[in-house]
Amino acid sequence: MSDPSTPQEILRALYDETLVGNAPRVLELTRTGLDSGMTPESMLFEALIPSLEEVGARFERGDFFVPEMLIAGRAMSGALDVLRPLLADTGADSVGTFLMGTVKGDVHDIGKNLVNIMLEGAGFHVIDLGVQVAPEKFVAAIEEHRPDVVGFSAFLTTTMPMFKANINALTKAGLRDQVIVMVGGAPVTQEYADAVGADGYAADASAAVKRAKELIQRRRSAMTV
């Protein structure tokens, strides 16, 4: 089979190779697309992100497992390393700064990483604190980076109470009113987010991007009134 040459062929190949986690091929196709004049946005939104969303759907159905999720995410990250500076060079203003971390006691990061990738693709500057992030580390990072949004991620029901502990730490440090708090993760619900006093919740990565934009716009509009 000949190498893909048209934009549609390249997008299809990017989608397929990301799905199976073929990182070298994804990187090669990304560079081929750029050399042929394709935009970073088209490859991100028409191939890479849809492929990773399909990986997530297959994981939820039990067709994929953690290893498949990880290798697909790594393949996507390699492409994003190439595309990120080009997306920044388009001259588009940053939508905002999003500080993200998985809460203390929780080492799961696949969902968080997918959200980060989609946030970056949507124009956010993302600061990822990693996993097992203690409340005091969130506080220090907010003081240092002054993000628009801080995101708390939890995959386990046993670590979800850390949302409230983190928010309490922000309040004690005098930071609660200075940052939008979003929460998410597999067991999290809108009701739980409301109960702990979060500003926003999203059920998936795509919804997280939309919700973050809405909350930032609402805050900025309120500040100009």
From TrEMBL:
Pfam families: B12-binding, B12-binding_2. Residues 1-95 form the B12-binding N-terminal domain. GO terms for cellular component: cytosol. GO terms for biological process: homocysteine metabolic process; methylation; tetrahydrofolate metabolic process. Residues 95-225 form the B12-binding domain. InterPro entries: Cbl-bd_cap, Cobalamin-bd, Cobalamin-bd_sf, Met_Synthase/Corrinoid, Meth_synthase_dom. This is Methyltransferase. It comes from Actinophytocola xinjiangensis.
